[in-house]
From TrEMBL:
Name of the featured protein: Uncharacterized protein
Top-rank taxon: Eukaryota
Length: 326
């Protein structure tokens, strides 16, 4: 359900993949599904490839572009029936689903987390300049993270629609924007390294909530040597929330054999947390945006509790997102 939302066709294709790969144990299925190979298989099928083609063909329309970015940033939007009628073709093509609310309005979202993942893999920020890396032939993970963090637009992050119910930055918006920054920086700064950014959208069930919570995992393959690192993002996390993400990062490391950075974004210095990750493959990163002076303080903490704060001016990218590579 966390990948298909119960979509009958997608569920059937997932079942066919399970049988084809002989994934008879639940653990084997979960490991394969979370290895980024499931989405590749699904959208390699002609039926679902046509969905991607439809998105690619219409993304050049400004109204469609704005809608796609909004859905990737926020997960869903509410609208009246007349808008649903206008979106009829996107619903008929399997791109969108619209659910009627009790008040007569509709909630519109992408048809499944699998489709969201496929679109995320193909979209990229264009039109922004990247600083030259320390060494163009060797990917520097911390340098990439620092460049991605400083290129985030703090004003955009503070928009009302990008804040959660507590008034802090939305975790999912950070996940999406940060993934886009990482992809663009690696493509431009390391053109000779065959690094790949592999995002995966998930639907995380939340007790007591009618709607589940979107979560975006990001895994980066450094190159042909298959060295990997992952990103686990938190927004204004409490100590308990950060510890939960660190525990998730350890599982992420075990699944992908990857170093994992747990990154906590906050807009209030009083909410900043410095946490010892207590695992040699997990690094905690505290990110404090000082919106008033357009700067960001980034502090890396390793398992030994060693801290390394870096103060950087924000570059605040405003580049457009391209969907041409879907």
């Amino acid at each position: 359900m966390q990948w298909t939302w119960g979509h009958k066709g997608l569920s059937g294709t997932c079942l066919a993949y399970l049988v084809q790969e002989k994934l008879w144990k639940f653990k084997d299925w979960i490991n394969r599904a979370e290895s980024y190979r499931l989405g590749t298989y699904i959208f390699g099928q002609a039926t679902y490839n046509r969905i991607m083609q439809y998105v690619r063909e219409h993304a050049g329309n400004q109204e469609v572009y704005n809608m796609l970015v909004k859905l990737l940033e926020e997960g869903e939007f509410q609208c009246e029936h007349r808008m649903v009628v206008k979106l009829h073709d996107f619903i008929a093509q399997g791109v969108l689903v619209a659910t009627e609310e009790d008040n007569g309005d509709y909630v519109v979202c992408l048809s499944s987390p699998l489709l969201r993942t496929a679109i995320l893999r193909g979209c990229a920020i264009i039109g922004e300049e990247v600083d030259p890396p320390p060494n163009a032939s060797r990917l520097d993970r911390k340098w990439v993270l620092l460049q991605a963090i400083r290129s985030l637009d703090a004003d955009t992050i503070c928009r009302p629609e990008c804040l959660n119910a507590r008034g802090g930055p939305s975790e999912y918006v950070h996940q999406f924007r940060f993934m886009c920054q990482i992809k663009s920086i690696i493509r431009q700064a390391y053109p000779f390294i065959t690094a790949r950014v592999l995002p995966e959208a998930k639907d995380i069930a939340m007790p007591g909530r009618r709607r589940s919570q979107l979560h975006l995992d990001t895994l980066v393959r450094d190159g042909d040597n298959l060295s990997k690192f992952g990103l686990e993002l938190v927004a204004s996390g409490s100590m308990s929330a950060i510890i939960e993400h660190i525990e998730r990062a350890v599982r992420y490391h075990e699944l992908h054999t990857a170093q994992v950075f747990v990154i906590n974004f906050c807009l209030d210095r009083a909410q900043e947390q410095l946490v010892n990750p207590c695992h040699d493959s997990v690094i905690f990163v505290s990110v404090y945006f000082n919106v008033m002076v357009k700067s960001v303080v980034v502090t890396f903490v390793d398992m030994n509790g060693t801290t390394n704060p870096v103060d950087l001016p924000l570059k605040m990218w405003n580049g457009n997102i391209s969907f041409k590579d879907l």
